[in-house]
C-alpha cells in the first residue's frame, strides 16, 4: 500500500471479529515501532504483547468493572473480540540516564531539564507506527487509555517493570465494518487545513 493511502485510511477501529492475526504481522508492527524516533536514541520503550485468548481475557478482566463484563455495551463487545492487545510503555529513567552520559553534557538526571516528557512522546510515535502497520496489513487497530484506577492492577497482573509506565493500550485485529464512533471521522467533519496550520505566526481567532 502507498504511504499516503496508509495515512488516509488510518482510523481508530472499535469493532473486531475473532479471527486470529498472523503472528508475523504482529512482529512486523513491533519491529516498525522500534524504528520510531527517540531522543538521544534512548529507546526507552517497552511493549507488553497479549496475543493468546487467555491473556486477552486477563486484560479485560483486570481493566473492566465486573458488572460491565457481565453485560458489555457495544463498545466493549466490539473491543473484547480483538485477538491482540499491545501495551506500549515508556521509561523516564532511560532518558534521564542517557542524557547524563558524557556525549550529552548534562551532569545530572534532573527531570526539570526536559521541556516536555519525551519518553511519552517517543512511545506515542512508536504506537503510531503500530497503527499504520495495521492499516498497511489490512487490519484494524485502536489506541486508547487505561483507566487510572486500574493501573496498579495492570502492573501487578502483568508484572510490568517498575521503571516503565504504560502510556495506553492498542487493540489489533480484523475489522468489522460499522458506522463509526460518534467521535470518529465517520460522523465528525475534519477541521479545515487552514484552521490548524499557522504559517509565520498564530493568528487570532
Q: What structural class do helix, strand and pairing data support?
A: alpha+beta
Indicate the CATH architecture. Answer: 3-Layer(aba) Sandwich
Tell me the count of domains. 1
Q: Could you estimate the helical fraction of the residues in percent?
A: 25-40%
- C-alpha geometry: globular
Overall CATH class: Alpha Beta
Mean pLDDT: 93
Count of runs of 4 or more consecutive helical residues: 9
Order of helices and strands: HHEHHHEHHEHEEH
List the helices and strands and how they pair.
Layout: H1 3-9, H2 23-33, E1 45-50, H3 53-63, H4 66-70, H5 74-80, E2 84-90, H6 92-98, H7 118-136, E3 140-144, H8 151-158, E4 165-166, E5 169-173, H9 193-196
Antiparallel strand pairs: 1-2, 2-4, 2-5, 3-5
Helix pairs in contact: 1-7, 2-7, 3-8
Notes on the structure:
Helix content is about 40%, strand content about 10%. With about 200 residues, the chain is α+β, with helices and mostly antiparallel strands. The protein has one domain: NADH Oxidase, CATH 3.40.109. Strands 1, 2, 3, 4 and 5 form a five-stranded antiparallel sheet that branches. It is globular, with a radius of gyration of 19 Å. The termini are far apart.
How would you briefly describe this protein structure?
The chain has 205 residues and is an alpha+beta fold. Helices cover 39% and strands 12% of the residues.
Tags for this entry?
205 residues, NADH Oxidase, five-stranded antiparallel β-sheet, globular
Amino acid at each position: 500500500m502507498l504511504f499516503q493511502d496508509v495515512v488516509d485510511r488510518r482510523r481508530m477501529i472499535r469493532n473486531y471479529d475473532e479471527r486470529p492475526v498472523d503472528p508475523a504481522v504482529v512482529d512486523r508492527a513491533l519491529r516498525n515501532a522500534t524504528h520510531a524516533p527517540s531522543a538521544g536514541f534512548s529507546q526507552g520503550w517497552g511493549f507488553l504483547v497479549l496475543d493468546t485468548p487467555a491473556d486477552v481475557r486477563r486484560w479485560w478482566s483486570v481493566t473492566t468493572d465486573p458488572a460491565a463484563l457481565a453485560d458489555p455495551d457495544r463498545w466493549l463487545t466490539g473491543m473484547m473480540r480483538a485477538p491482540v492487545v499491545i501495551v506500549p510503555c515508556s521509561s523516564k529513567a532511560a532518558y534521564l540516564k542517557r542524557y547524563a552520559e558524557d556525549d550529552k553534557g548534562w551532569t545530572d538526571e534532573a527531570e526539570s531539564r526536559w521541556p516536555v516528557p519525551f519518553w511519552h512522546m517517543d512511545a506515542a510515535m512508536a504506537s503510531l507506527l503500530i497503527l499504520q502497520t495495521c492499516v498497511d496489513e489490512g487490519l484494524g487497530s485502536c489506541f486508547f487509555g487505561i483507566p487510572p484506577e486500574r493501573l496498579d492492577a495492570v502492573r501487578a497482573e502483568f508484572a510490568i517493570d517498575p521503571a516503565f509506565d504504560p502510556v495506553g493500550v492498542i487493540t489489533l485485529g480484523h475489522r468489522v465494518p460499522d458506522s463509526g464512533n460518534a467521535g470518529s471521522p465517520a460522523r465528525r467533519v475534519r477541521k479545515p487545513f487552514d484552521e490548524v496550520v499557522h504559517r509565520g505566526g498564530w493568528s487570532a481567532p
